Amino acid sequence: MAEAYIVGAVRTPVGTRKGALAAVHPADLGAHVLKELMERTGVDPSAVEDVVMGCVTQAGPQALDLARTAWLSAGLPESVPGVTIDRQCGSSQQAVHFAAQGVMSGTQDLVVASGVENMGMVPMGANAQFALDNGLPLYGEGWTERYGTQEISQFRGAQLMCEKWGFTREQLEEFSLESHRRAARALEAGYFDDQIAPLAGVTRDEGVRPDTTLEKMAALKPLREGWALTAAVASQVSVGAGALLIASERAVKQHNLTPLARIVQLSLVGDDPVYMLTAPIPATRIALEKAGLGIDDIDVTEINEAFAPVPMSWIQELGADPAKVNPNGGAIALGHPLGATGAILMTKLVNELHRTGGRYGLQTMCEGGGQANVTVIERV
Questions:
Q1: Which positions are catalytic?
Q2: Residue closest to 348 by CA, chosen among 239, 175, 195
Q3: How far apart are the C-alpha atoms of 8 and 21, rounded to whole Å?
Q4: For the segment 163-222, what is each residue's pLDDT rounded down to a tens digit?
Q5: Residue 328 sits in which domain range?
Q6: Which end of the chain is more exposed for a tag (fewer CB within 10 A), N or C?
Q7: What residue stretches are annotated with the Thiolase C-terminal domain (predicted)?
Q8: Which residue, 91, 130, 132, is CA-closest to 114?
Q9: What total of structural domains would you count in the chain?
Q10: In angstroms, how far is the first alpha carbon of the chain from the final one?
Q11: What is the pTM of this model?
């Protein structure tokens, strides 16, 4: 099987839902990173064979095949097609998988994997609102026969995880505080500077709260009475975009590219859709086994902090070193622009491996429907 390489990776800053980036049209957010990716890699954009873009809430300004409109909005060649995909929070990580699979199959040589989400302009769930507004069920008869009419939500899933693993509110808040500390340290040290393409006057991630404390977190109300969850231990509503260029060995030579990382393993797993957020655990086990690696071989892990119990349970079940997991903070501090997060985390992962000299990196995240992607890469 042919090899697939990451030869470029760039992202916007992750903005808050009321920050300057929230006023930027999603197609222009995507256009910004796509144009920057082409400029940084020096590739003739007409050589790109497809643009695969993740976006979760494909409604309003994020409808009409955002991948295509973003590419054209960037002034890039009309000859290059684009497709927009939705694997919930893992959408742009799946974009990386599709791009890499196209290259590894030998049918493509240069594919862009990207993701965009403006949660300030297009609220989460806006694409489901039509059903709610018109009295239509979100789930059909087959689903109801199998799972009943119980609540299916990320919030309930996260609370169920707290109960299953016995996590207390205090433990969740301690994890959250550490996420902010790590992110603040990374921002201060400039770890993200080279990977960010500033936009709308925003030059750095906006969500980090370096002055937060356990006392401030303890004053927040739980999401529901009796729950361990508060807003402080959940990912932030955000705005952002990211893009990577995936190349074959032939394209690397033809276009004189410098590989940043080699794709080692691409895995997908489904798990309980009611718990919803637990799939990264079995998915990681399968990915490591297929890659012939152990958890101790992984130098850096990026696991999306949708809610604190997701990485906390993953660390516990995998026996991972917490110091290697989200070393520069996660979505609790840095934000989670849904369909863009996969591309953003992969950009961070590649850069962190090069900064530290690590060999193997692993990325995973929980996804709606009880799914998870796992990507293992090797620094080149």
A1: 89, 336, 366
A2: 195
A3: 23
A4: 999 999 999 999 999 999 999 999 999 999 999 999 999 999 999 999 999 999 999 999
A5: 264-379
A6: N
A7: 257-379
A8: 91
A9: 1
A10: 18
A11: 0.98
